[in-house]
Design brief:
Layout (H helix, E strand, L loop, with lengths): L1 E9 L4 H14 L3 E8 L7 E9 L13 E6 L2 H6 L4 E10 L12 H9 L3 E5 L1 H7 L6 H13 L3 H12 L4 H15 L1
Parallel strand pairs: 1-4, 4-5, 5-6
Antiparallel strand pairs: 1-3, 2-3
Helix pairs in contact: 1-6, 4-5, 5-7, 6-7
């Protein structure tokens, strides 16, 4: 088993929380994991990206080469496009449909969506609306993780267990909200 994942978005969207959950699930399965994080101007809405590599065999580098990512999980559609050169031909893009317009020359959303839809394996979800409509507004990132579960090759129950461990200290309501969000994404 080997999965190379690029997680991307804008500061404050929960990218690093997704990486923590995936990493926790992988480590609990005794898989090797390497992670490299790039924090942009996250407090100002800048680019945040993480390379996450999971394997049943030892991993030499924490960086993902161009054209070798199995999955791109993006909290923001333009950020998914930014990392498209890293995706394998048969790789998956799982992205939010809601733009985070933080720059004056943000590209036309229709153009972004058209480019994303050119990729064979693309899932585009309005995670913000799903989160609000289902009473878990702070867990949109975990909805996206649920949608990516099959592409990641990690069993659903392993991600649930990881959520319990990662968020357990924050209380049962936070844990249950994130498990609900994971299930919404899976659907």
């Amino acid at each position: 088993m080997k999965t190379d994942i690029i997680l991307c978005g804008v500061g404050g969207q929960g990218i690093l929380s997704i990486a923590t959950i995936i990493g926790e699930a992988a480590m609990n399965e005794n898989l090797y994991i390497k992670q490299a994080e790039v924090h942009g101007m996250s407090q100002r809405g800048g680019d945040v990206q993480s390379n996450l590599r999971i394997s049943s065999d030892p991993i030499n580098s924490d960086l993902i080469a161009l054209g070798s990512a199995d999955v791109i999980i993006s909290m923001e559609p333009m950020e998914a496009l930014r990392y498209l050169p890293y995706l394998k031909k048969d790789g998956w893009i799982i992205t939010s449909s809601t733009p985070f317009v933080n720059i004056p020359n943000y590209p036309d959303l229709e153009v972004i969506m058209a480019d994303l839809k050119k990729v064979k394996n693309t899932i585009i979800i309005d995670i913000e609306k799903l989160a609000k409509d289902n009473g878990v507004p702070r867990s949109a990132n975990v909805i996206l993780l649920g949608a990516a579960q099959k592409a990641l090759g990690i069993e659903y129950n392993k991600l649930e267990d990881a959520i319990r461990r990662v968020f357990g200290r924050k209380g049962e309501a936070v844990v249950e909200g994130n498990i609900k969000a994971l299930a919404l994404g899976k659907e």
